[in-house]
Amino acid sequence: MEEKELNVDFSAFWDVLKKGRWFIVLTMLLFVIMAAIDVFNQPNEYTSTTSVMPELESSSAGGLSQFAGLASLAGVDLSSMSSSDAVRPDLYPSVINNTSFFLYLLEQDVKTTTNAKENFLDFYIGAYELEKDTITHKKGFISRLRESLGIVSKIVAIPKDSSAAGNKLIYLPKYEGEIIEGLKEKVVAEMDKKTGIIRVTIQLPDPVTSAYVAKLSMNYLTDFVTKYRTEKSRQDLNFLAQQLSEAKEKYYSTQSKKAQYSDQFQSPTIRLQAADVQRERIESDYRVASSFYTELFKQYESAKVELQKQTPVFKTLQHPVIPYKKSGPRRVIALLINSILGLGFGVLVVMLRKRAFAKVFYMK
Known about the structure:
- The protein is α+β, with helices and mostly antiparallel strands.
- The protein has 13 helices and ten strands.
- Helix 2 runs antiparallel to helix 12 and helix 10 packs antiparallel against helix 11.
């Protein structure tokens, strides 16, 4: 059995194109016009990038060796101190790429090219020409009912005594959810796993706002990681500071009592058994208070060193730069792609209308 090959009759194909050329041209123009209406209604986009290199935490206190001599004077031993990174650097981008950050961003004031400050939500609505009336309409019946009843909070806190204490339920109106979905494509944080560099890229219609949001985003990231990694150390330090203050007050009080009692019985001829018992009690209280205060002071100094140790270091590699040229939309490319699509669609319709597939493509 002979194998047949698909062949194309280019002369027949050309004849079909000539007969339907006006339809093909009109189809291309229609596709181009539709694309032009879309891309020319989109505002220019400007991209700003900032990057930092986070500290890679070591597993020992070797980084604090320069404090060893100073700490030893206070009775603090650094040799037994160890640490582990509370947040892995590869998780840092998740701090930016989440709804909590975008809710924070929508409430911030940002700078624009006019050097004025504007609420970011208002800026975003104006930049993309989102009508506030339309947004209000998009809220829907349930959202409008909530507002009419005065229920306008976006966050409903769970009681502290619940099993999920500390968590929050976030209520988002539909319009705000749509804005956040759009922001997820314009505010992107990523990490280069080879170099460990964290990069935040912002794409917005205003060049100054783009750079300002890049700086704001990186500050949010570094503050979040710093607070998270030092939270336990700060709590310990605050607790020890409170205990040290109370111990110091008690120590000074017993010290004063001891001095006052000694002044009352300076004469060696006075030897009362009751006075000896009282003196022993005061001196015992004084020794306990002194020992307790000294031990707390050592722990307090150790906690300060631990807090310094746990505080991460971020080295800025690239500060946000105000872009001088737009990064999008690429209107020429969009028009070119749509013209090719229009050409292909027009040819396909002409071939179907003329029933020319059998003439142009045949097996031989």
